[in-house]
Design brief:
The protein contains 25 helices and 31 strands. The protein is of the alpha+beta class and 785 residues long. Among the domains are: 7-38; 60-202, Penicillin-binding protein 2a (Domain 2); 643-697, 2-Layer Sandwich (Trypsin Inhibitor V, Chain A), CATH 3.30.10.20; 702-783, 2-Layer Sandwich (Trypsin Inhibitor V, Chain A). The strands form 10 sheets. Strands 2, 3, 4, 5, 10, 18 and 19 form a 7-stranded mixed beta sheet that branches. A hairpin with a 5-residue loop joins β2 (64-65) and β3 (71-83). The termini are far apart.
Amino acid sequence: MKTPPSYRMKTRMVMVLAAMIVFGFCVVIHSLFQIQIVQGAELQERALGQQMRTERIGAKRGDILDTNGKALAKNSTIYQICVSPGDLKIKVGENADKMKEKRSAVIKCLEEILGCNPDTVAEALDNTASFYVVVKKKVEQDDYQRLMQEVNAKDLKNVIFGEEMTWRRYPYGSLASTVLGFTNNDNVGAAGLESYYEKTLAGTPGRIVSLRTQGGAVMPMQYEQTYDAKNGNTLVLTIDEQIQHYLEKNLEIAVSEHRVKNRVTGIIMDVETAAILAMTTKPDFDPNDPYTITDPDWLQQLQEAQEESFQQESVARTEEEKAAAKKIYTDKLWVARNTLWRNKAVSDPYEPGSVFKIMTLSTALETGAATVNSHYNCIGYVEVAGRKIHCHVWNSRHSGHGDQDLTQATMNSCNPAFIRIGQSIGTARFSEYFSNFGLTQGTDIDLPGEANSIYHARLSDADLASSAFGQTNKLTPIQLITACCAAVNGGKLMQPYVVKQVVDSDGNVVSNTAPFVKRQVISEKTSEEVRGILEKVVSEGSGRQARIPGYRIGGKTGTSEKLDQADSTTGDIPHILSFFGFAPADDPKVACLVLLDEPDVYNAWGSTIAAPIVGSILSDVLPHMGIEPQYTAEELDKMTNQVPYLINFDLHDAESELRIRGMRYRVIGSGSKVLQQIPGAMETLPEEGSVVLYTDEVQEDNVIEVPNVVGKSPEEANSTLAGLGLNVYMNGGKLEGVASIAISQSPEAGARVPSGSVITVEFTERDPAVENTLSADSPEEGDGE
């Protein structure tokens, strides 16, 4: 029998138990103290953070508009279509056949409405472990709505669903792409204005802050705060979409026609304000799909790089060699993209050649180093620092230009004469005015990637000689055209700009860009003299192919050598051909600079290649700007209705020939040479008619069935035929004056002729008896009167 615990033992046990209880209470109290007092604020913040959810509210990106309000870049709502394969997984107790029918319906629906590849969709649906697979991106709203109607009708909404997204759209495709740039997949500016004005365009995102349950549901009667997004501002540009189109149309032809290796650049500027009316570099890219290369030359180079990459990889022995082989193609692709994205007009300095003589001429007249009466004798070369520098006309049969005054030296673009002019100015004053024309620093135009010029801060005698006629120093096209405009606008160096206005999402004007005069470089008197000399360059000198009847055009040709890229084996030196033109010459409103970097054309000069391009551009731009032609008596005398022979002419040369004769023309086709012309050579072009130049073979689409105009008045006949693209020669009829009626036509009604063909219509004075006869002969025409 056990002895019960003694009283003392019991007392000890009670004390131990009490001590344990007290200790436990102390631990709990200490923990509560730590949680509530010491760590209370921190833990409360952590708990709130676990319950708090923040949702982003996207800000709408601002649009980019041309000067007339046309959208060059805007936002579009698109959809990303997804499927949920997991919802097609056959579960226990479900009808397998029914689920297979639903799967087939999903595939058919996506194929018929969105054009999805059924095999691709089927493969996506096989992944039943997933509830989210993207099957189609960039679906337009109309297609999305059609899809959703079908999805709801067939009860597929748990399998097919869409996500709303914002896509940056460029309605005019590649138009002004090197200026506009593009946005990346996150809708953030990656190049051009989209990048430069990112903060202005992007706006500020908003957010919704709320308390949620563990499952993500909003907690009722709890905290929720909304911070609204601030939409981005819209940019209104100085660029005119139509003028931009004229520039790009002509430069695209130039790239093809002259096989330009290193791209073509053009800028059109308001002479008085330096506002950019158009700017481009060709070839370029489509900002709607900027990573895709479409230029044929680059595609050929990429194909060759890919073939080389495969060949190198097939014989590679190590992982390093395989990686190096793959890099051949990826490096070439990187170069291709970045070249086509690059805005050559602001980023690539080049030796401007004889266009720079405008600055030498202006400096000489302003400083008194030369006057319009100064004379220079060209013997074909000039010797400077022991080196002979030849004139472009020097050869074994020609000793030079001989005696010429300042105007003639500029018209002839005579290098020896301009070397002498540069020597008269002197190194100090030449450098001073070089800087005053803004050529020692960037223009600060509101575009990314502007490069600075490359020039000699201290000129030797040889440097001065070559600088005077446009070699040695390198300038960007934007620097050069800005300086040239200063020479002809009264002497004011302006700040060039692309954005004229910033507008908020409510239409309120945030800021305006006012024209800014940096400095007065030369006097108005000197500028007037420069304008007069440069007008002679076009009317009588080396720039004759830029002439436009009815307009006073001034300008200067340029042919520069890329001496630092001369072929060490052959000695061949690549060239840049350029032309700067402005109009009207007596009161300049618009200027255009075009340069072709390494055209693959034999015996090419700025006067023969670049000048007609600028002439063609200005012949479109000037009427668009409301500047009407004013023909001189001499121009009217020279105009003839006899069409010249143009077959096999380069397109720009053919256009130049027609412009000089004051003839209207249309181009049909995308080629660079004239394959057919209508009317033909030596035929008479009717008054108000147009010559049609075919650069592709005549297609059926360009063949017109001649309508019946017998019985019609001259006005009606002309309107009917001209409206179909046919020329009308009216014999005996006038659009105004004596009432007359058509009695015959050739070719006859029903004949099929190419667009531009001449239809000869015989008219006679109106006579009721004649009209009744004609009506009886042509009842179908009478029914419509």
